[in-house]
Every structure is written in structure tokens, then in C-alpha cells.
Design goal:
Layout: E1 4-6, E2 18-22, H1 27-32, H2 43-51, H3 59-68, E3 71-75, E4 79-81, E5 91-92, E6 98-99, E7 109-110
Parallel strand pairs: 2-3
Antiparallel strand pairs: 1-4, 4-5, 6-7
Length: 116
């Protein structure tokens, strides 16, 4: 039986204006305990380019890049079972309801069907 993979906590602050949703951490991200950790993943260089900042190297720099620009990052699923290193054939666990503070300028609430 494959192990269940849990998502990371959100990277966010209360006044976030943009929420980026991923699916689940990759094997390398799980190993490094943070989002988009594989060196060939273009997420951090692209975010740095879009936000006009240097490419972050450390987890602290990555977190600061996002929160400093009021960008939140989280995964859609709470957990999943993934039979291999890639997403082909993986099954999601129960979906989570996302809810950022209603006092935030960015309000995002989405309920997922239990059938998903």
C-alpha cells in the first residue's frame, strides 16, 4: 500500500491579493519540505521575473518573495496517494474547503464536491 502524501501549510498573509493553487508536493518538494523544490521547476524563476525580484534560493527567501508581494500559495488537495514520482495515476483524498479571511481584500471560498 502506498503512503498518503499530505499537503504543506499555506504560505499566506491576511492581506493576500492573489492565491496560487498547486496540486500536491512533488517527491523533491517533500524531501525539501517546501513548494516547487525541484531544480528544474520554473516556478521560482518565473515568480521572480513577474514580481521584479531576484530568484529566491532559500525557503525563507521564497516565503518572503510571495508574502512581500501579497501572494498566497497552497495546494488544492489535503492529501493524496501517488503510486510513483509523477502525478499519473494518483488519487486525491478528501478535498478541503479553502477560505481566506473575509476581512482580506482577496476573498476566496470554494467548496469541493465530495465525489471529486
Amino acid at each position: 500500500m502506498e503512503a498518503r502524501i499530505e499537503c504543506f501549510p499555506p504560505v499566506a498573509r491576511g492581506d493576500a491579493r492573489l492565491l496560487i493553487l498547486g496540486t500536491m508536493p512533488s517527491v523533491e518538494s517533500l524531501r525539501q519540505s517546501f513548494y516547487y523544490a525541484h531544480p528544474r521547476n520554473a516556478f521560482w524563476p518565473v515568480m521572480a521575473e513577474v514580481l521584479g525580484a531576484p530568484v529566491p534560493e532559500t525557503v525563507e527567501e521564497k516565503r518572503a518573495l510571495l508574502t512581500g508581494h501579497r501572494v498566497a500559495l497552497w495546494d488544492v488537495a489535503r492529501s493524496c496517494v501517488r503510486p510513483g514520482p509523477f502525478f499519473a495515476g494518483f488519487s486525491l483524498g478528501c478535498k478541503k474547503a479553502l477560505g481566506f479571511s473575509a476581512q482580506s481584500p482577496m476573498v476566496f471560498r470554494e467548496k469541493f464536491s465530495p465525489a471529486l
